[in-house]
Amino acid sequence: VQLQASGGGLVQRGGSLRLSCAASGSIITINAMAWYRQAPGKQREFVADIISPDNQRYSDSVKGRFTISRDFAENTVYLQMTGLQPEDTANYYCHANIHSGAFVDAYWGQGTLVTVSS
Asked: What is the Cα gyration radius of the chain?
């Protein structure tokens, strides 16, 4: 099982980006899917997660600007980011709790870098 993230890049203040993360491999079910981020010199922090379209959570710092969504058929999670600010600059990591065998394991994707210029 692996998670492949994409969509990062360089954007100006106030701009938008859409991140994607696809899970692949021997997957039975996926529970929550989430995004975290880690800025240079800082700890990794929670951004948003989604279990179902009616069950989403956001950190206070992104609430109202970012939207998490999920394609259950494609095992993919998205993060639509609008109103980007320089403080949003970070490596963004996807995370998923995946049932691929006898247990549910936590998986991380590789980071995708988002840089917001002022």
From this structure: 14
> What whole-number distance in Å separates Cα of residue 45 and Cα of residue 104?
22
Asked if 11 contacts 88 with a C-beta cutoff of 8 angstroms, the reply is no
Q: What is the pLDDT of residues 13-44, one digit of tens each?
A: 999 999 999 999 999 999 999 999 999 999 99
Q: Where are the beta strands (DSSP E) in 16-75?
A: 17-24, 29-38, 45-52, 55-58, 66-71
CA distance 56 to 2: 23
Beta bridge partners of 49: 34, 57
Looking at residue 66, its amino acid is: F
What sign for the dihedral angle of Cα 4, 36, 43, 107? negative
How is 59-113 classified by DSSP, letter by letter? -TTTTTTEEEEEETTTTEEEEEE-S--GGG-EEEEEEEEEE-SSSEEEEEPPPEE
